[in-house]
Amino acid sequence: MVSAFTAEAQSEDVRAWLSRRSDTLAVSHWVITEFSGALAMKRRLGVIDTAGWNGVMKAWQRFCAGELHVESVTETDLRWRQRCSIAVI
Q: E strands along 6-66, which residues?
């Protein structure tokens, strides 16, 4: 999602995919948190300035409000994910 709102190598591909979709995207609250964290890191590293950060955050918040279905993550989900991670090792 960060690529859709910032300038990265795959930004155009991600934006094109988002514009072609006809369904609602479902994400967890983690996606929203991780997006904010990734954007904060870009700000700290000087990849974007404060004005850029503000603009991206406003666009992201509008996108979240109108385009995303946010699902809650339960403890059962966390345990399932942990089992999947262990199974791959």
A: 25-28
